[in-house]
Write a structure and sequence with these properties.
This protein is an alpha/beta fold and about 425 residues long. Helix content is about 40%, strand content about 15%.
Amino acid sequence: MRVTILNRYYPPDLAPTGRLASDLAEELVRRGHGVSVIAGSDGYAPTQPAEPEAASQHVDVVRTWTPRLGRRNVLTTLLDFSAYLLGAAYLLFRRSRPDVVIVLTTPPWLVSLAVLNRMLRGSRVILWNMDLYPEVLEAVGAISPDGVISRALQWYNRRLFARVDEIVCLDEAMRERLRERYEGPGNQLPLRVIPNWESAGRLQSTAGELDAELKPLFADPSQFVVLYQGNAGRGHEFESVFEAAGRLTDKKITFLFVGGGQRRLQLEKAVRQARLDNFHFHDYVSTSCLSALLQSAALALITLRESARGVMSPSKLYTYLAAGLPVLYIGPVRTNVDEAIARFGCGRSLRNGDVAKVASTLTELHSDPRECERLQAASRLAYRDGYCDTQILPQLASLVESLADTGSHVENRRAA
């Protein structure tokens, strides 16, 4: 079986979607399939440190040119996206026909290329949803919910979904969101839930030392460091954390933001204005440093706006759990993070705006080392039994294999 994976990012870039695509590609190769990846030449974030080139003798990775303008504004973002789409289209159609095309959502509507390839050459299509569009744009206020632009994009999605063989959702909230908006009489979408994962041993095999700038924050063993690692986009909520940080009188509780994203500068400005001396920022770190960082922190932070429920599924959860790091989640219920905490007891799940509860929870955990140890054990159990690659990857790989030798069942579905 020949498989092609479409995603703008791929290792050595540190983007989470690239690492997931790489894990799946290697798993399919181990199962005896031929795998090619069409990626871009740019990186997820300009502040990410360089990593050694990923070594794979069996995955055929081809990269299309992109101008690398970055996400400074809407124009530069669109230009990078457009360059990748055009290059990916050229590479996809000039190469041998794949049996299955797996498409991630970076950039949005990349699945259009796979659907066109399916119509012209008959390849099966799996849409692997990392987030939902236009729902993300609605959630962050970029477009009006059910306005003209949103309705036009929904119409386009219905036509695409009618020609996709399988749609992978990351949690039940995402599946519910798609059902509510796109399913109708005689139009049932081929939805299934397969969560993301963290690779077993990735953190251990890349263990290194803390960045020199970070070491002073961990010099005092009694310091309780709450870590937020990764991207801070407009779908994440930090106001509750800032207000709670201002209420904490115990200076041993420290917040550390490591990463970037659209809201990074805005968050730094808010911290300065509030004069929060217990909040620190640092750019992305290498994978080896990340391993040491996760082992040094006491608690991991994940936030999500209410409007982002079902349209975003924070993948940093699985990295935290793989490191045995308990999670403080501030966001809506019934997301992948809320479900993991409810199922395994690996942290605390709180609601946006409940500042008093956030502050009291942090104070409680800081003063109770035994409870923190219990949460660490629960996090390791959650990873082992729920979100390890050895648990999840076979499900996704089997789904890909199931499409290779079966006829498409999509033609008989009627678009809404």
